[in-house]
Structures are given as structure tokens and as C-alpha cells.
Specification:
50% of the residues lie in helices and 14% in strands. The chain contains four helices and three strands, in the order H-E-H-E-H-E-H. A three-stranded parallel β-sheet has the order 1-2-3, sandwiched between helices. The radius of gyration is 15 Å and the shape is globular.
């Protein structure tokens, strides 16, 4: 079985793209709620550092956007995110439900087939 190719350059490019997108979305004034699906990206040290910097900058500019992170994160990362006013879950359904509730929808809001 071939080993996966790990490229620091690609990881750094993704870090920059995600933090730029997060910053744009949080600061444009069009959104009141954001869900960031991290998967396992927070476990990459360079990504986590960039995400922390971006989120700290946003909070320092008093961004009032509700932010929900969904993915695999450590207990320390969860504590850090929560200390910065973010909600954290590992379940994508829970993340969507939280944003639905924050947006004023009652659960269950899904269309039943």
C-alpha cells in the first residue's frame, strides 16, 4: 500500500486559504453564524497556529459572528476555542442543528420524506 504524500507546502496553502476565507466571512457583515468543518485539520500544527491567530484577530476586532467548529480536536483545542466564544462539536448534524437554533429555527427543521 503506498504511503500518503504529505506536503508542508500544500498544508500551508490550505492554512492560508481557510484563514482568509474565515476572516472574509466573519468580517464582511453578511453572516451572523458560521460553521467551520475542520475534519482533522486542527491536528496539523501549522493549521492550528494559523487558525488561532485568525480567530484571535477576529475576536479582537469584536466580531459578533457566532462560530461553530466541527471536527476532530483535542481537549486543549476545544477549551481554547470555547474560551474565544466558539462552540465545538465533532458531529456535523449537531453543528447544523446549532446554527439552525441560533438562526431561530425550531427543531426538527428538516424536511421529512
Amino acid at each position: 500500500m503506498p504511503k500518503p504524500v504529505r506536503s508542508r507546502i500544500k498544508a500551508c496553502e490550505k492554512c492560508k486559504a481557510v484563514s482568509s476565507t474565515l476572516e472574509d466571512a466573519a468580517s464582511c457583515g453578511l453572516y451572523t453564524n458560521l460553521v467551520i468543518f475542520l475534519a482533522g485539520a486542527a491536528l496539523i500544527p501549522s493549521f492550528w497556529a494559523k487558525l488561532q491567530t485568525c480567530l484571535s484577530d477576529l475576536r479582537n476586532r469584536s466580531s459578533n459572528v457566532n462560530t461553530v467548529f466541527c471536527g476532530i480536536v483535542s481537549a486543549e483545542q476545544t477549551a481554547w476555542l470555547e474560551s474565544h466564544g466558539c462552540l465545538v462539536t465533532s458531529d456535523p448534524v449537531d453543528a447544523v442543528d446549532v446554527v439552525a437554533l441560533l438562526s431561530g429555527h425550531r427543531l426538527p427543521y428538516r424536511i421529512k420524506s
